[in-house]
Amino acid sequence: MKLIRRKLFHSLGLMIGVYALSYQQKAAADELQNTPQSPLHPLIQALRQTHKPVCLSAAQRLEKQSGSGEAFNLHLRSANLDISDAQLLANAFTLIQQQGDLPLNSFSVSYNPGIETGGVQVLLSSLPDDVNEIGMVGCQLRDDVGELLIRFMARSSNLKTICVEDNLFSASMRIQITSAGKKLENCVTIV
């Protein structure tokens, strides 16, 4: 009889323990589900999807500062980005702006020749009008991208620095980009 009672208490204790554990897991899952996502979550995911070390580091940085609402810098220099990576980032920028504000202060994809014209086109069209700084140094950009840059500069409301030197722009395109920069108040243009 003592053995049966002991086994019964042991079984009852196990059932209570399992119930308590599953209740804790459910509570933890509910808490995670109710935690508001950072507005930068789409960008953090896009950076991770590239599987590039520079982008993964940037994702970690953004995750730490995420939710602060403060303006941030996104510098992806020498990250070996290609057109598909640029498309991922552009989609994230667009999604964030549809949900609210994208507090992007400075953006650089310098030394990423793999982004090519198509990548620059989607990035420029997705960047917020009030970004302060753009860097696309050493990306082997040609005059067709120069035209895109000039259009971006024309719609920019707060551009203070644009660095696009060490590209393949013709002399006349460099003059046009410099001229577009002079139309912006206090904008430093390095071509």
Observed structural traits:
191 residues; alpha/beta; Leucine-rich repeat, LRR (right-handed beta-alpha superhelix); 2 domains; five-stranded parallel β-sheet; 9% strand; elongated
Please outline the helices and strands:
Elements lengths: L1 H33 L6 H9 L3 H13 L6 E4 L7 H17 L4 E5 L7 H11 L6 E3 L7 H13 L5 E3 L7 H12 L5 E3 L1
Parallel strand pairs: 1-2, 2-3, 3-4, 4-5
**Global outline:** elongated
Beta content: 5-15%
The whole-number mean of residue pLDDT values reads: 88
CATH class category of the largest domain: Alpha Beta
Determine the fraction of residues in helical runs and give it as a percent range: 55-70%
Low-pLDDT ranges: none
Rg for CA atoms: 25 Å
- The domain count comes to 2
Instruction: Give the biggest sheet.
Output: 5 strands, parallel
Number of strands: 5
CATH homologous superfamily of the largest domain - what is it? Ribonuclease Inhibitor
Tally of helical segments: 7
Would you give an account of this structure?
With 191 residues, the protein is of the alpha/beta class. The protein has 2 domains: 1-35; 36-190, Ribonuclease Inhibitor (Leucine-rich repeat, LRR (right-handed beta-alpha superhelix), Alpha-Beta Horseshoe), CATH 3.80.10. Helices cover 57% and strands 9% of the residues. It contains 7 helices and 5 strands; from the N terminus they run αααβαβαβαβαβ. It has helices spanning 2-34, 41-49, 53-65, 83-99, 116-126, 143-155, 171-182, and strands at 72-75, 104-108, 133-135, 161-163, 188-190. Strands 1-2-3-4-5 form a 5-stranded parallel sheet, with helices on one face. The longest helix has 33 residues, at 2-34. It is elongated, with a radius of gyration of 25 Å. The mean pLDDT is 88.
